[in-house]
Amino acid sequence: MSSLKPYDAVLLLSFGGPEAPDEVMPFLENVTRGKGIPRERLAEVAEHYLHFGGRSPINDENRQLLANLREQLAAAGAGDTPVLWGNRNWAPFTTDVLREAHEAGARRVLTVVTSAYPSYSGCRQYREDLADALITLSHEGRSLRVDKVRQYFDQDGFLQPVADSITEGLRSLPAGARIAFVTHSIPDTMENASGPEGNAYTQTHLAACEAVAARLGVETVPEWDLVYCSRSGPPSQPWLEPDIGDHLKQIKQAGATGVVVVPIGFVSDHMEVVFDLDTEAEEIARELELPFVRAATSGRAVEFAGSLAQLVLERAAAERGENPERPSKAGPGAWHDVCPANCCTNTRNPDRPAACGVDWVLPIDRTAEAQAGARQPEASR
Ligand SMILES: CC1=C(CCC(=O)O)c2cc3nc(cc4[nH]c(cc5[nH]c(cc1n2)c(C)c5CCC(=O)O)c(CCC(=O)O)c4C)C(CCC(=O)O)=C3C
Ligand SMILES: [Fe+2]
Q: Where do the annotations place Fe-coproporphyrin III binding (predicted)?
């Protein structure tokens, strides 16, 4: 018997990315459908992918994470539960993976998303994808129940590899170097709607930055800031600032002797990291003659997969009615397992169904309920 009971499968759910030049535009169209992203921005981002031969690094990062997660779950005695991989924007697509899981007999699936923080992009949008998949599958007569592990910006395996990498990076820089924690910029409206009470995106990032800074193996913790990359959307729409490029100019002017750029917002070295930081920001630092080191993401670290495996075990125990410990090493305490109705609201389309929340009901069930309700008076006649 598996220790992951009541779950029959674990799903690693990610963003997806193209792996050949002719996949770049169709991928970008999937990502930006209905988002109001300007055409020029799309062409510009396509260039980033083509610069790397049309192949995003994200899938290989996820293949490694998948292998590590399988290993860590097996080491914890849950090796007989299948661990699957699916994506929002590119193959293998979530719906196809869940269909196969159902065909193989799975009825309850626990999801781990490759995003550590709460926001519409990093949490609810994945829940909407799951809802879409469950609705499609229900029309095929396949009924599945899907849960999602809590956000993990506060876990040892996410924080410690980053701290270790910064400590090492600082060794190669002169005294007076600074740390620039970087995450994906999002529209102010998305920031204001993140978490159940708003502003959870920046709050949880700041909590993670503080926790990482406290773990550095240095005598004096350098000055640090949280800054942003990968802004898109029309220029008229406010997004979180400052951008990493502007920030580098600013700290150079303020006398910084070097910088460790830390992609704290990201789980792996995907395109935002290898292009926006390693290519674009590095070039700005070079022009500024500002010594530049890029710290690692946690995604390939064994400890990271170990923490995710612990969250999987924790959630399975909770679903069995046990009372597992809920460790949290950053911020005010463990993030919720089940999202409240108002969590990370979709500001464009607030009524769009999202799975893994208190208010999730498969629309087909709702239809069945309504029909049952409508039939009742007839039956009692
Ligand atoms: C918060 C956040 C994360 C971190 C959390 C998480 O990891 O989920 C993230 C990750 C990622 N974002 C990625 C790629 C893209 N994001 C885009 C667009 C957008 N991202 C947004 C936010 C985020 N994005 C937003 C608010 C938009 C505007 C459109 C919208 O409102 O949704 C676009 C469209 C072009 C552009 O405008 O840049 C692309 C191509 C990839 C894959 C990289 C690869 O292929 O290696 C990854 C991991
Ligand atoms: Fe993105």
A: 56, 126
Residue with the smallest CA separation from ligand 1 atom 36 is 232
pTM for this predicted structure: 0.94
What's the 230 CA to ligand 1 centre distance in angstroms? Answer: 8
Ligand 1 pocket, residue 191 CB under 6 Å: no
Token pair 């150079």: residue:
252
So what's the pLDDT on residue 329?
98
Residue with tokens 């065909």: 103
Tens-digit pLDDT profile for residues 321-333: 999 999 999 999 9
Q: What is the pLDDT of residues 256-284, one digit of tens each?
A: 999 999 999 999 999 999 999 999 999 99
Q: Nearest ligand, CA of residue 271?
A: 1
Helix (H, G, I), strand (E, B), or coil: what is residue 201?
Answer: helix
pLDDT of residue 369: 60
ipTM of the complex: 0.95
The C-alpha atoms of residue 265 and residue 181 are separated, in whole angstroms, by: 8
Does 56 show up as a binding residue in the annotation? yes
Smallest CA separation from ligand 1 atom 47, residue: 15
Q: What structural domains and CATH numbers belong to the chain?
A: 9-153+301-368 (3.40.50.1400), 159-294 (3.40.50.1400)
Gap between the Cα atoms of 240 and 221, Å rounded: 25
